[in-house]
Design goal:
The structure holds two protein chains of two kinds. Chain A contains 29 helices and 21 strands. Chain A is an alpha+beta fold. About 2% of the residues of chain A have low confidence. In chain A, α8 runs parallel beside α10 and α24 runs parallel beside α26. In chain B, α26 links the parallel β13 and β14. The two termini of chain B are 48 Å apart. In chain B, α15 packs across α16, α17 packs across α27 and α20 runs antiparallel to α21. In chain B, the strands form three sheets. In chain B, strands 6-7-14-13-9-8-12 form a seven-stranded mixed sheet, with helices on both faces. Chain B has 27 helices and 14 strands. Chain B has four domains: 128 residues, Sec1/Munc18 (SM) protein, domain 1 (Rossmann fold); 188 residues, Rossmann fold (3-Layer(aba) Sandwich), CATH 3.40.50.1910; 112 residues, Syntaxin Binding Protein 1, Chain A, domain 2 (Alpha-Beta Complex), CATH 3.90.830; 89 residues, Serine Threonine Protein Phosphatase 5, Tetratricopeptide repeat (Alpha Horseshoe). The longest helix of chain B is centred in the middle third of the chain and has 36 residues. The chains are: A alpha+beta, B alpha/beta. At the A-B interface, α13, α15, α17, α19 and α20 of A face α5, α7, α8, α16 and α18 of B. Chain A: One of its GO terms (biological process) is endosomal transport. Chain A: Belongs to the VPS16 family.
Chain lengths: 733, 617
Amino acid sequence: MDCYTANWNPLGDSAFYRKYELYSMDWDLKEELRDCLVAAAPYGGPIALLRNPWRKEKPASARPVLEIYSASGVPLASLLWKSGPVVSLGWSAEEELLCVQEDGVVLVYGLHGDFRRHFSMGNEVLQNRVLDARIFHTEFGSGVAILTGAHRFTLSANVGDLKLRRMPEVPGLQSAPSCWTTVCQDRVAHILLAVGPDLYLLDHAACSAVTPPGLAPGVSSFLQMAVSFTYRHLALFTDTGYIWMGTASLKKESQKADEYLREIQELGQLPQAVQQCIEAAGHEHWPDMQKSLLRAASFGKCFLDRFPPDSFVRMCQDLRVLNAVRDYHIGIPLTYSQYKQLTIQVLLDRLVLRRLYPLAIQICEYLRLPEVQGVSRILAHWACYKVQQKDVSDEDVARAINQKLGDTPGVSYSDIAARAYGCGRTELAIKLLEYEPRSGEQVPLLLKMKRSKLALSKAIESGDTDLVFTVLLHLKNELNRGDFFMTLRNQPMALSLYRQFCKHQELETLKDLYNQDDNHQELGSFHIRASYAAEERIEGRVAALQTAADAFYKAKNEFAAKATEDQMRLLRLQRRLEDELGGRFLDLSLHDTVTTLILSGQNKRAEQLARDFRIPDKRLWWLKLTALADLEDWEELEKFSKSKKSPIGYLPFVEICMKQHNKYEAKKYASRVGPEQKVKALLLVGDVAQAADVAIEHRNEAEMSLVLSHCTGATDGATADKIQRARAQAQKK
Amino acid sequence: MAFPHRPDAPELPDFSMLKRLARDQLIYLLEQLPGKKDLFIEADLMSPLDRIANVSILKQHEVDKLYKVENKPALSSSEQLCFLVRPRIKNMRYIASLVNADKMAGRTRKYKVIFSPQKFYACEMVLEEEGVYGDVSCDEWAFSLLPLDVDLLSMELPEFFRDYFLEGDQRWINTLAQALHLLSTLYGPFPNCYGIGRCAKMSYELWKRLEEEEDGETKGRRPEIGQIFLLDRDVDFVTALCSQVVYEGLVDDTFRIKCGSVDFGPEVTSSDKSLKVLLNAEDKVFNEIRNEHFSNVFSFLSQKARNLQAQYDRRRGMDIKQMKNFVSQELKGLKQEHRLLSLHIGACESIMKKKTKQDFQELIKTEHALLEGFNIRESTSYIEEHIDRQVSPIESLRLMCLLSITENGLIPKDYRSLKTQYLQSYGPEHLLTFSNLRRAGLLTEQAPGDTLTAVESKVSKLVTDKAAGKITDAFSSLAKRSNFRAISKKLNLIPRVDGEYDLKVPRDMAYVFSGAYVPLSCRIIEQVLERRGWQGLDEVVRLLNCSELAFTDMTKDDKASSESLRLILVVFLGGCTFSEISALRFLGREKGYRFIFLTTAVTNSARLMEAMSEVKA
């Protein structure tokens, strides 16, 4: 085992460290590293280099080149720097390169040298220039801290959500601090700086002096300081040649001693040993060493009954993934701990960012990730990249994407189309949308692309009326009224929807819609409705009705036009009646108007009205009969019944009198009922015996049964017998 | 009486889960507004809400006072107002006016609007236009299925009928698709689907898309309900327009059953109070008579009364122990039965008083004549007299529609004269009602010589004219041809009767209309289930104007048990009547099926006509 630990160097009493070369970088550097601004991203991320032509000792010559390499030195991007002088470079947690310029402007580039955006660190920074800058990472994201020429600090804890904070002044600071760094404590970013022999901690409110406990005396200046990635540990390098190490929370007086060396309780604790072998394999960089350790674990496992296999299996899987991404061509030298902290999802994102789609898909398949989180997501990313290839024709891109993606679950064609549109490829976006099976998903992008009419069809296809309505409102704002109405006309479903809305909220628009369509029938109905709902005054109502009647004529609906004109006449007349007679006539039906007149003794006027409006005789007779019976004006009723031959016969007279419980009057009319309805009339007035006689006389079977069904009283027995006899006789014959 | 189910009839699924789901969701929503609050409830939602959560549950969740949403300023002094409403624009305006009044008075409170069953974008837009969108928070109570009975689910959306079949507004289709989706997540997939009608087809397609999007949820589940049948109300208007004569339907026509319960007035309760009675399978007396032809009900009830008396009478001659037993075990049940019995006897008497008069007999006679297509002149005169006498605006309208549909439209002379008479009797505003009825295809004019092909060629001409907007009108007028007579012949809807039709022992579904007519909707369902599809029904489908709109969808790998295949969910889009429910329950007993009914609302002829009527504002 000796050889395995040969390169382990002791660090203090209880820890070791080792150094090993990950890659032999075969990059072709044109400049000395010391002449460059260099930024290497954490977690095995990329390295950025910018030859620094702005250093005072070297006069500016040609424009510098910004170069980006993978951690293994594979070139990823190279571009001429055309902006202002850069003070510092750094990588964000999303692997975006932040370039801090002297004027406080921060330019953000992607991994492939693609410009993303820029932002400024504020006016104070602009005026006093940037002296120095640091990019740092917190749990919220990546931040930028600036030291200005006025020896003040400005920072933003998260460049994704830019909030600038100007830190308080350090008392008596006349020159730049000898060294400084950002420290995160309790979710707040602080600045730790060294001025001569003193250390200061700046938070957003105050500046306080701090003393590292147990620091050897005689320090007159600090040359360098470093904070661990977790901000838990701090190292200070003094001009006396010492390195002080301790926790970053300097307020604590005593430095906690390391405690990790414990006595192994019992030698030969096999399960623990196996577990440690497995873990150790994870921390080894070289596959050969990993194999040896895993083999050892596997061997030891054989002697154990119940060692759960999953930790071993999982480690094997993790190592395969790690070894794959550590490969020189990929160049992401993650440690096991980093990998676990990063999670597989983020690692996949990083592979996607490097356009390493096949490897990402292989990893997904190998780890059997669910499609939606795994393969589909990567394919979708691939497609989004694909649409940016401007040299390929729309057709080819669309086809290529569809071939690869097909109906993979979880792939949203509308997202890919949105990306295509973002790259200015509207036609491609429309083609891609065609593959989107959910028509509702196509709508928002179509609207964005100003293809509102297509959006409308798709919204209608989706069957989601809310979506249709959204598009309609878009169209309404986008088109002029005429075009908008024309579009509606071609989409009946949308039209009905919009009409419904207008009916309740925009009556005038509804009218315009009908007008536009030359829909005179509906226009007529619209004005009729208005004559009831909107208008109070009789003149207004009549005017509305007149408009309605005109519309009905245009619609060739003569019936409705005439009926409307009748209504106008009736309204005017009702108004006059109210004026002359008092009482309430407005809005009664014609029938009720006449009835009201009769009930109030205005027989002449009633007659006149009936003539004017050509009320048919039958109706008039029913009406008068009912009204007079209601008045119990039996004398008038009888007079009326004799005025001429009744067009409705006399049975109704019997019925109505009986309804008013006047048998005496009813009987009068029963005698006048024609033979066909005689039996009914007699039964109505309760004369069962006579009804029987008539029925027998008629030799009518139906009538006889009807009478029989009325033979319920005690005295009807004889009548019933009589009918039965007549029936029997009829059958004999 | 009260035909028992066949012993092999499948068990019904437990739909009470739907109620629990709705209740839990409502409570969750109420708790989103912590603290005391006043609740404003839309009138139409009160009865459904009552079936889900009673006042004490609401109080438990800090609802202080309850108000009805009506066009009046709110008197509430609460700091938090919660509105439970249907997604209607007029409600939005009401809420906005309330909020704005508060603003004017310098008052700030919290407002929350809960839309049921879902919110619509148009509503939010109105809130925005009225300037209160930022002041209210909006939520959805996805309560779309109320189990009214063990086999009856209602969406309680009567406006579905008018919105879709008159206004062409499709917004409720999504609600329906969501409801079907909920059913399939709870009760497993439906392996066999049938349907007829445009709305049925759209709903079905939208529903299937929802299922695809949420792939896997129902996958692998065993179907509980083997078949589903979706049917548009406009496929069969005739049945819905007929007077109902089975007990439950008659109670609905007479007293109006609302959300599964009925208010029996003093004339029924024979006291001075009205009584709200829940009508469902739990009412043992009602359950035995609900599907019966009315002519049998009274004699059944009196027999039942005699039996009950006999059971009471057993007390005599009991010893103490027996008596103790009787009191503790039987008496309560008997008393309960006694109470129900007297209620239903009261209801029967009240119905008899109204319905057994000459008028009703004549009415039924006319309806039968219309269904069978004889004595059309006589029926027309009857309707005219009905109008002249102002018997009832809704009834007159119903008869006119029935005449129109059975006769493929009125002849022009009658069309004009009946309408004129109607306007004279019931008021000129009904000009709008007629326009509605024409649009919905309920009351139309016969176009002489205008055969189907003639209309079709007209449509194709319109297409070339590119007046696409008018095509829909043309299509709808095309759909208006009801072809009832021909369909009736094809499907044998008018049973040939030799002698008296025995209503006590019915032999077919026609018993729900006194043996005169088999409900068209139910016959279609019967035929399709028998044939397992539309094969051989092409001509009927064409006559129904549904050539492209009748569909079958059978799942290939059939995990459905034979038991589940006999459990059939029938979905009525636009409402179903109790007569149809009774007819299908009868069919179920005959064939060993069990039907479950899902309807947008329970309807009857009066409700259909009211939906089409324009009333002066």
